[in-house]
Amino acid sequence: MIGIFDSGIGGLTVAFALHKQTPFADFVYFGDLKNAPFGPKSSEELFGITLRAMKFLREQGADEIVAACNSVSVSVIRPLMDAFGIQGTNIIEMVGPAARALKLRAPKNILVIATEATVRSGIYEQTFSENGLHAAMMAIPELASAIEQGRPESEIEHIILPVMDRVSKEGIDTLVFGCTHYPFVRNVFERLFAERGVEVELFDPAEAVANEVVTLFQIHGQGKQLFLISKDSLVFQETVKRLFGEGAAIVVVDNTLLD
Ligand code: DGL
Fold first, then answer.
1. Reported pTM
2. Domain 95-205, what architecture?
3. Cβ(127) to ligand 1 under 6 A?
4. What is the pLDDT of residues 31-57, one digit of tens each?
């Protein structure tokens, strides 16, 4: 079974892309809301959080894991991949699939927006250059939390205004959502760019990640989906129901099970 992991609602963009491609795939999703947001955390903290989440997902029966979070794709997942590979768990992260899909589009001038942890790790620059791409990076520290908390559109607008300036000034043709939370406010980006007459492609890696999951993982099941969270959240509950239906199974887990 597939296990999908993020700090909160962000990874649902990946789970939904996977669901659209293979509605019958069984998966268990874990949103570690108790530890959200991941963006400001150190690599050491993220390493511990990720190990714990992996262990928990394995205990739930997941033998194939999607780290649907760029902030841990990075410094954390790569070192873990070998260790988990030995134990027979396959892991797919966000950045490699994004780079492989994007290079087919031959973008000229890429800007990746992401959390501080992702920007600090340098993983996008490294992975993109391995794929013959150059990426400029920009951290938007407050955006993932604002989305997770369901903040009003006016607040989101205010937070992303510096992105508008940078895209216009630097002639960016491709803006990459380097955080899985950001596609939830894609409409705000689109509107602000349209108002400024700026043409830029918005690239969400979720689809590319789902493609690699379908290609590389053994997909089986009857479309059984379980959403686990380490802390309750109305925004999480509402988002899951909107994407996966009113009957979606959402459980707030006893945190002692995570230790
Ligand atoms: N959605 C995650 C990412 O892609 C984490 C956001 C956060 O918790 O700061 O980086």
1. 0.95
2. 3-Layer(aba) Sandwich (3.40)
3. no
4. 999 999 999 999 889 988 998 998 899
